Amino acid sequence: MFTQEQLGKRNRKVRTFDEKVDAVMAQMRAGALLQLSFDGNAPAWRLSSGAGVVPPAIARAVVACKNIISCNDCLFPQTLSQTWKWRT
User: What predicted TM-score, i.e. pTM, was given to this entire model?
Assistant: First the structure.
């Protein structure tokens, strides 16, 4: 069982996560692209609008949305696309 305080803390984390996903989606709705590159061995997600770095967990949630589509620019077959956009 969780205490009220623990549940409140957990709900705040979920709300914050959802707000970050919504903010990225709003940028993409306005025309920004979500771009994947690699810094060393780690994936680095960025918005083309210059809004900054997108954390990997947020990027994964965004690309899973039905309104976000791949631009099919994979370097190798069966790999993740490097550019994602809002479905028009």
Answer: 0.82
Domain that holds residue 73: 4-86
Place of tokens 């083309």: 48
Residue 40 Rama label (left phi>0; alpha psi -120 to 50; beta): left
Q: Whole-angstrom Cα distance, residue 52 to residue 38?
A: 15
Q: 9: how many CB neighbours lie within 10 A of its CB? A: 11
Domain count, the chain: 1
The span from the CA of 55 to the CA of 36, in Å, is 11
How would residue 52 be classed by pLDDT, with cut points 50, 70 and 90? confident
Is 77's pLDDT higher than 80? no
